[in-house]
Amino acid sequence: MRKHFCLALQLVLTLLFVMVSILAVGQTAQLSVQATVAPGVPRLVKFNGLLKDASGNLLTNTVGITFAIYSEQTGGAPLWQETQNVQFLQGHYTVFLGETTSAGIPAELFVSGQPRWLGVRALLAGEDEQPRVLLASVPYALKAADADTLGGLPASAFMQANGVNSTGVVVAPGSSVDAGKLGVHSPSSPVTTPGGTVGTIPEFDSPTDITNSPIVVNSTPTDLTDVVAMANLQVRKMENVLYADQFPGTGNHDIGDKINQAYASCPANGCKIKVAPGIYSFTTPISFSILNKPVVLEGVAGDTSTYSGYPPSEGTTELYYTPTSGTAITMATGGGTGTGIQGITLFGPGFKGSNTAVGLFITGEIRQTYKDLFISGFSAGLQIGSNVYLENFYNLQMLDNVKAIYTAPGLTRTGENMAFFGGVLTNKSTSLPGGGGKTVPFYPNCVDFEGGQGIVVSFYNISFDHCGVTVNIPGGQQFLFSGSHFENPNGPTTADFLTIGSNCVSCQVILSASDMLEDPPGSNRTEMISMAGGSRLVIVGGIYVAAEPIPQLVMSTNNANAITVLGVDKFNAITSWVGGAFAGMVTMNPREYQPLTLAGGPIILGSDPKIHGSITSAPLSAAQTWTFPNSSGTVMLTTKGGDAEVLGDIDVTGAKHFKIDDPLDPANKYLYHTSVESPDMMNIYNGTTALDSNGEAEIQLPDWFGALNRDFRYQLSCIGGFAPVYVAREIENNTFRIAGGTSGLKVSWQVTGIRRDAYAEAHPSPVEVEKPVGERGHYLHPELFDASQDKAIGVH
């Protein structure tokens, strides 16, 4: 099978080439008419690559590679090529193109300014040349070696336009030129300067004035990026991309200072500021606060697919904010599509002492995107201010912050539609406030929404570890937790995973397919969720597990709260769903045969229910329990008085009875009566009558009797005497006649009929049916037949 190799190519030129292109202008050495390279200018291009075999293994041996430069993207003959034997280290290699000859790469390749393409081919069986790579503008800095000539001619081949040496303006021999157009002034025009800064290269800002240029030569450079700080030159600027390391800063020259200077130099329509991988300590707060001037701050996040609590230390952009107060990064530009921060690891001062610092503060923003952020060691990792709309966060990693996400009390507007997609909000350090020993503190307000209005916040696939959520914003807020995980794996706590505070009036909180897990015993929790504000809580699906029994999943302390719990898959060691005071509550878990509990109403749940168990009708001052396995029916609780209306059939395994306070001892006893069963849809009618002087009586039935019933049955009993009474005429026109008695004799009568209305005719009641295939071998009550509970209907 043919082997395929992946070559990850990166062309790297040192900043020295750029320096040569700038400084070579001032040289005066005599050069040949032909294009030559000045002494000291290397004809080598540094090139890095990565090579893997077909199995994805990084090579470690030596492989021959041919490098070629072309004038076309495909086809054509190479303008230059060479072959080198390349030694690999964990798949990586570095070569200097041109080092196989003393002449190096010909500078003439880049003189014309035409596009050049680099092709790479591994000298292995069946391996073709890799797709060619377009060389960027930096390699053409080799042409700086020609700066000592003009059109290949030395300076001595030219003459000054005015014949003297005062202006330094030259033209090619035989050319005519308008000296005025070239800005040439007579020797009598003085050149002035207000004075310069040591270490700064001067420039003309007018024909007669010299000022400081943006090019600074430091006396003690630490690396090449410090030798020439190009604040406005932007040699690498493409599509408004700036590089923080090109800026010297205006204050203490740390990365915060440099980023601020880069932002100040952005065009009015905004820019992207890149920060290379590395570790940067800074004290200068980073501030993006010019309205309608958007910005993207971009670093390198490294590999986030193997998150283990901390980011990898190599290949990432790590910013260390050392002050214990203030805000590390402020975003207040007004936003705009595509703006935000990505690939930044932001560390705060930690908690060895006082710490009130904020990691990232966003305010006055719209349609921003934050991706692959890691924030740790702040009093508040992410603080949200006023007027924040349509903000999206992807892969947000928050570690060891007292508050991971925070909106402060008193905000009048805090936007809407903020969404968090994937990430971890966790605490792992025992040195956090409230920790100590082996205990990692659990913060119930780790995510804390205290202020603002109009908020709609969604969390998708977020893990909250040692990190509780508090929503306490006044008035009508909405919060969604979908596929999210709440856990306290270390250290007992009585705090709640989710707190809906007293200020959160008419809030709506939805937990969808999420779970809560309490690992350590001894926490003495009374609930996992608390409600105090008169809000609505909906829990759909998910797993809720306690390490030891707790009284309820939700504790409600406001009789205006409404709670719905539907389809929760697991409910271990939790005594009840909801405790306390509430206005309405519905719970149903058909997959695990948990009861449907109704409290409040009206409540509608489909049509054609099958009810297994007992039905109790009572005022809903307390919760009523109905069990609905496989329910698809309508059950409507019409009044708080307890009246229930069922549309459709009801299948009841147990007894159908009424339950009332016992009339003889209503304070201490209940009285039950059970209904009469029949294989038919039978109606029963009865009454008493006194016979007339002929010993007869006419019994009048309701007008609808004949339309409702058929197949009549009769029963007569004499009261106070005996007589051979009988039915003299069967039911006709809703009447029948009794005869055979004596005058004044009292007779008790009973008539039954089988329903024949349209619904009964269309839905006859079955008497004996085969169980569905999926229920065969299972029982409604397996314990009555000495079978185990795994034989119960509905257990899968």
Structure description:
It is a single chain. With 796 residues, the chain is mainly beta. The protein contains five helices and 55 strands. The chain has a 31-stranded mixed β-sheet that branches. Strands 1, 2, 3 and 6 form a four-stranded antiparallel β-sheet that branches. A hairpin with a 6-residue loop joins strand 46 (634-637) and strand 47 (644-647). It is elongated. The two termini are 48 Å apart. Residues 1-38, 161-187, 218-238, 304-312 and 590-642 have low confidence and may be disordered.
> How many beta strands in the DSSP annotation?
55
Main sheet makeup: 31 strands, mixed
Structural category: mainly beta
Amino-to-carboxy terminus distance: 48 Å
Low-confidence stretches: 1-38, 161-187, 218-238, 304-312, 590-642
Radius of gyration computed on alpha carbons: 43 Å
Q: What fraction strand?
A: 35-45%
Mean pLDDT: 75
Global geometry: elongated
The share of residues in helices is under 10%
Helices, by number, come to 5
Short description:
This protein has 796 residues and is mainly β. It has a 31-stranded mixed beta sheet that branches. Strands 1, 2, 3 and 6 form a four-stranded antiparallel beta sheet that branches.
Could you outline the blueprint of secondary structure elements for this entry?
Layout: E1 6-7, E2 10-11, H1 15-23, E3 45-52, E4 62-70, E5 80-87, E6 92-97, E7 117-122, E8 133-134, E9 159-160, E10 170-171, E11 200-206, E12 209-216, H2 224-227, E13 241-243, H3 255-264, E14 271-274, E15 278-282, E16 286-288, E17 295-298, E18 317-321, E19 327-331, E20 339-342, E21 345-347, E22 358-362, E23 365-366, E24 368-376, E25 380-384, E26 388-389, E27 392-399, E28 403-407, E29 418-426, E30 443-449, E31 456-465, E32 467-471, E33 478-482, E34 485-488, E35 498-500, E36 508-512, E37 515-518, E38 529-531, E39 536-540, E40 543-557, E41 562-566, E42 570-581, E43 584-589, E44 594-599, E45 624-626, E46 634-637, E47 644-647, E48 657-661, E49 670-674, E50 682-690, E51 697-700, H4 705-708, E52 709-719, E53 726-732, E54 735-739, E55 746-755, H5 758-762
Parallel strand pairs: 13-14, 14-17, 15-18, 16-19, 17-20, 18-21, 19-22, 20-24, 21-24, 22-25, 23-26, 24-27, 25-28, 27-29, 28-30, 29-31, 30-32, 31-33, 31-34, 32-35, 33-36, 34-37, 35-38, 36-39, 37-40, 38-40, 39-41, 40-42, 41-43
Antiparallel strand pairs: 1-3, 2-3, 3-6, 4-5, 4-7, 7-8, 9-10, 11-12, 43-44, 44-45, 46-47, 48-49, 50-55, 51-54, 52-55, 53-54
